[in-house]
Design goal:
Blueprint lengths: L4 H9 L32 E2 L6 E3 L9 E5 L12 E5 L25 E2 L7 E20 L6 E7 L7 E7 L2 H5 L12 E2 L12 E5 L13 H7 E11 L19 E11 L8 E2 L19 E2 L5 E2 L5 E2 L33 E3 L1 H6 L6 E3 L6 E2 L5 E2 L3 E3 L11 E3 L11 H6 L4 E12 L4 E13 L7 E7 L1 E2 L5 E2 L7 E9 L4 E4 L4 E4 L2 H13 L3
Parallel strand pairs: 8-9, 25-29
Antiparallel strand pairs: 1-12, 2-6, 3-4, 5-12, 6-10, 6-11, 6-12, 7-8, 7-11, 13-14, 15-16, 17-18, 19-20, 21-22, 23-24, 23-28, 24-25, 26-27, 28-29, 28-30
Length: about 525
């Protein structure tokens, strides 16, 4: 149930409303009061017209005082004695400005807006400072409801408009449209265009009526229907109260008059916030008895960011951003990138995402502390890993291992080194054992082996050129793939790497060239 909404209608009309309007499934109830927003959540709903200026083309007595009369009917549809008065914008007690439609229906129950008497058509417009979720509209008329009107919305701050619903006593004659009384789902309805009751008649519109009401309110389809930046109601045809007048009285001239313009909605946060604050520069319009204003900037949760939580936070782009699931309650949080403490931001990369089997697509930006790689997972060239410190430490990478590499030039020189193994391998980690260093690798391809049985899979390389700084030559950076040619130590079963070894970062062309040299020149 929507507390306060039905009461507002009853106070104006003295009638029970035709139906309960509880908003959109998942919006009002996604998170209860005091919720920590652990699941899909949404800020509290309210009247979006509160704290904002309603605009109309005219107002009774705006330029000069006007007289008016209005009839109501009894149960036999006979006219009651007319209620007549004067309106004047120069006197607060006689003014009927647009703001009267958005004041408190509890503290100011007998205030209304009234159009100038000579106005055949009118427009009521609400301009919002940001995009909001709109769930339903309730108009409570003081005058008879229009014979024809249309509710429209904009999603681009008034540049373009689309109709939500047409309302007419005769949809075909007024708009050339079918009536949803006869055909469910039609764009026009005659339900709210009867002149009776002559005062207190309601016009009600729900933004997500069945079957759309069953959708996830944060889905793209639902957002296309719910998101608004502006609303306007165009009143196109007036009608008089057709109560039975005692002869020879003539009915008064028709006019438009509205008690309440209730725009139910909430801050637009994609299911990732339960509280909102004012948009920068927004200053609420004061209205009598109005203390609660629905604000438009989300206080984002679930590692999201942006005015509508429409982005992942700077270091949480390991997966594609998603709106929360309003049907299951799944929050669909943004996931942190694995940057080892060496980056402040990351971005999502679709190629990395697909290459990982849709598990991780985060690429760390501007790796700090002399690190490099997708996850800042290795020391950049010219720096070595200090194994005495965790890799997340800001000084884990130290400067100028200087190693002279073997160059692949004359094939006879390469063959003359009499390498006993040649492998393609990925460096997993390096460890300082005190008396020596060990490099854990994953062998991916064996191009040559002699006496030791070398299989694909995990193995350890033993660098001979080790120093107490933790530096190994040749340089083997974790995370990279290398072509390594070296010598076997048959006595210990170890694969040795030293300054005579040929170590170069793996490239397919290099692998083919070395394999060709092994077959053609080294036999």
């Amino acid at each position: 149930m929507c507390p306060g909404l039905e009461v507002a209608v009853c106070m104006r009309t003295g009638q029970m409303p035709a139906k309960r309007l509880c908003g959109v499934q998942g919006l009002g109830s996604a998170a209860g009061a005091g919720s920590p927003c652990e699941k899909a959540c949404n800020p509290r709903m309210g009247n979006l017209a509160h704290g904002r200026a309603l605009r109309t083309e005219t107002a009774c007595g705006r330029h000069a005082a006007e007289s008016f009369c209005a009839y109501t009917e009894d149960t036999a549809l006979r006219c009651q004695p007319p209620a007549c008065g004067r309106c004047s914008g120069a006197h607060a007690g006689l003014a009927h400005p647009p703001a009267a439609m958005a004041d408190s229906p509890f503290r100011r129950p007998r205030t209304w807006w009234q159009a100038a008497g000579d106005t055949p058509q009118e427009t009521i417009r609400l301009d919002l400072e940001a995009a909001f979720y709109f769930t339903h509209l309730i108009l409570v008329f003081k005058s008879p409801r229009p014979a024809a009107m249309v509710l429209e919305r904009s999603q681009d701050f008034g540049k373009t408009w689309k109709p939500y619903k047409y309302f007419a006593a005769n949809c075909s004659a007024a708009f050339g449209l079918e009536d949803d009384v006869a055909r469910k789902g039609a764009l026009c309805t005659s339900r709210y265009s009867s002149p009776f009751p002559c005062t207190g008649g309601e016009v009600i519109y729900r933004a997500l009526s069945p079957p759309l009401a069953a959708q996830d309110p944060y889905s793209a389809e639902a957002q296309a229907q719910l998101k608004v930046t502006n609303l306007r109601v165009r009143l196109l045809e007036r009608q008089s109260c057709p109560c039975l007048l005692p002869a020879p009285q003539a009915p008064p001239a028709p006019h438009y008059a509205v008690y309440d313009f209730i725009v139910k909605g909430s801050c637009f946060c994609n299911g990732h916030a339960d509280r909102c604050v004012p948009v920068s520069g927004f200053r609420p319009v004061k209205a009598a008895g109005v203390f609660q204003v629905v604000h438009g900037k989300c206080m984002c949760k679930h590692n999201t960011a942006g005015p509508h939580c429409q982005l992942c936070a700077p270091l949480y782009n390991d997966r594609p951003w998603q709106a929360a699931d309003g049907k299951t309650g799944a929050p669909r949080e943004c996931q942190s990138c694995k940057c080892n403490g060496h980056a402040d931001t990351c971005h999502f990369d679709m190629d990395a995402w697909l290459a990982s089997g849709n598990r991780s697509g985060g690429v760390c930006d501007n790796c700090q502390h002399n690190t490099a790689g997708q996850h800042c997972q290795r020391c950049k060239p010219g720096f070595y890993r200090d194994l005495r410190k965790p890799f997340s430490a800001p000084d884990a990478c130290k400067r100028k291992c200087e190693c002279k590499e073997q160059v692949l030039g004359n094939p006879k020189v390469f063959c003359g080194m009499k390498y006993t193994y040649v492998i393609k391998t990925k460096i997993l980690s390096a460890h300082d054992k005190g008396s020596h260093a060990e490099v854990n690798v994953k062998i991916k391809k064996v191009l040559k082996s002699t006496k030791l049985k070398i299989l694909r899979g995990k193995r350890t390389l033993y660098p001979e050129s080790w120093t107490n700084r933790g530096c190994t030559c040749p340089i083997l950076n974790p995370g990279l793939e290398y072509l390594v040619a070296g010598h076997e130590d048959v006595r210990t079963g170890r694969l040795i790497v030293n300054m005579k070894s040929f170590v170069h970062q793996w490239k397919s062309a290099l692998g083919r060239k070395v394999l060709e040299i092994l077959k053609r020149d080294c036999n």
